[in-house]
Amino acid sequence: MGDVEHGLRVIREFAEVCRPYPFKFAFKLQYRHLDSLIHPDFIARTDIKYIKRFSETRLSRADTGRLVREIKDQGFIAMCTPFDEASVDLILEDGFDILKIASCSFFDWPLLEKVVDADRPVIASTAGVAPSDIDKVVTFLRNRKKHFALMHCVAEYPTPSEKLEINQIDFLKARYPDVPIGYSTHENPSLTLPVGLAIAKGCTIFEKHIGVPTDRYALNAYSATPTQVAAWLETAQQALHCCGSTSGRAQPSQAEADSLFALRRGGYAKRHIAAGERITDADVFFAIPTQPGHVTANDWSKYTQFYAERAIEPNQPVLVDNTRQINTRDTVLNIVERVKALLRKGNIIVPGQAELEISHHYGLERFDECGITMITVVNREYCKKLIVVLPGQRHPEQYHNLKEETFVVLHGSLELTLNGAVQTYGAGSVAVVERGVKHAFESAEGVVFEEISSTHYVNDSFYTDSRIGENKQRKTVLSYWLD
Question: DSSP strand E in 321-413: where?
Fold first, then answer.
């Protein structure tokens, strides 16, 4: 409520409620770095619900420090939800033990990249998220060796009993059997049946909104009093009437979708973006409020390309109807599968965690005609790469001023052009490409060869077709592709 003394009272009263029970308890706060989270043109607005509420309950760093110390002094695990990247730094500075990802941020990729760099376990709520998107985030967290759990959640406040979808716990447990599954509750706080059902289904983590009502502060419709929490904790099993479908992922209601969308960060232009121009990470910032039809941070990933359909001025929203979107995920995954198939055919072992770089000199749509895939094994004073040329591909003419290369063909055949002279190399052949020598290559049947060289420098590849050098989006790099 923006009142640190009231906050301390809430912590202390619930510590007394929790003490008799043999559970581990965490007390969770939410952090928002309002000066960067809220668009500068809206920061003083009081007619927008969330901006008004967040602004009115702002606390100082000294006050948040007092709350965290009290949480730990009362024996709670300290947990916090960041809604932006700057808040992650503040959370770590304040010594929280666990990071929580809210449903509205579940696939906010800029925020997730920041969260996974923190040495903290992660708990993530899944309200309104499609199964394919949960899969992506689970894979993302697994690949980065994070200790994490998922929470079944419905983002209607309060949630009617008939919309609790308790059987979704079964769905999550079956789909992710190695991941702890919990239940984040928003039902009427006088109800105790849902937590019993969730326990019966195997949940091990529970989240509940709480508060202490006073003459000054009334509770909202989904926050529980100390008495209600005591009753909630006493419940172990109840009847099954709150359970929902187990036949698939429940679709969010319009009210839930609207609630989630309102809390997501929308993309705004940092500069004038001309019609037809590709919109890159450097061209946008993410802030609330979201506008109708907004492209949000949740839509922003390395597999989606955005192009302006008409000019977008600084601080104006990037919208679905003023952009054209190209999703490259399926194309990239298809390339990866074909590369792995050729590596298997040649019995070529690739070291784990080797980075894969897809070079599409004239764009992904022309990759099968002109492009290669490079796997960097080591790049020190010496460099080794595996070069994969799929059947029918060619690599355009280039030269290096600093790097000398030796090609060793491992599988297939390579047609190599050196300063205009063409020669074919089969498996076991060796070719040297000296500094300054213009070279191009292709393969009709597909080829894998080692490139052994001096250090590879990013700016040491010079193409004779100037259009390639001008294409700043000609590479897609993957760190996790072998599984």
Answer: 323-327, 355-359, 372-379, 382-389, 394-399, 405-412
User: Other CB atoms closer than 10 Å to residue 10's CB: what's the count?
Assistant: 19
**Band of residue 202 on the pLDDT scale cut at 50, 70, 90:** confident
pLDDT at 250 > cutoff 90: no
Residue 158, preceding bond cis, omega within 30 degrees? yes
d(CA 430, CA 450): 9
Q: CA 64, CA 171: separation in Å to the nearest integer? A: 37
Q: Please report, as a single letter, which amino acid is at residue 177.
A: P
Helices in 74-167 by DSSP H: which ranges? Answer: 85-93, 109-116, 131-143
Burial 304-321 (b: 16+ CB within 10 A, else e): ebbebeeebeeeebbbee
Q: What is the reported pLDDT for 50? A: 92
The two structure tokens encoding residue 84: 């932006």
Tell me which DSSP letter residue 191 carries.
-
pTM confidence score: 0.65
- CA 142 to each of CA 136, 357, 483: distance values in angstroms, whole numbers, following the listed order: 10, 21, 12
* Contact by Cβ (8 Å): 111, 84: yes
Burial 39-54 (b: 16+ CB within 10 A, else e): beeeeeeeeeeebeeb
Model confidence at 452, in pLDDT bands (50, 70, 90)? very high
Least confident of 45-59, 73-87, 230-244, 453-467: 230-244
Tokens coding 332? 């990239």
Q: Which helix (H) or strand (E) holds 448?
A: strand 447-454
Does the structure show a pLDDT above 60 at 241? no
Beta-strand ranges (E) seen in 209-283 are: 266-269, 278-279
pLDDT digits (tens, 9 = 90+) for 39-57: 999 998 999 999 999 999 9
Lowest average pLDDT, out of 293-302, 368-377, 469-478, goes to: 469-478
Rg of the Cα trace of the chain? 27
User: Within 82-127, where are the H helices?
Assistant: 85-93, 109-116
Give me the percent of the chain exceeding a pLDDT of 70. 98
Contact 364, 425 (CB under 8 A): no
Structure tokens at 206: 């529970």
Cβ neighbors of 390 (< 8 A, separation 6 or more) are 335, 338, 339, 342, 368, 373, 443, 446
CA distance 430 to 123: 52
Task: Give CA–CA dist 463/266, Å, rounded.
Answer: 38
Task: Report the mean per-residue pLDDT for the chain.
Answer: 93
d(CA 249, CA 473): 36
Give the separation between CA 318 and CA 326, rounded to whole angstroms: 15
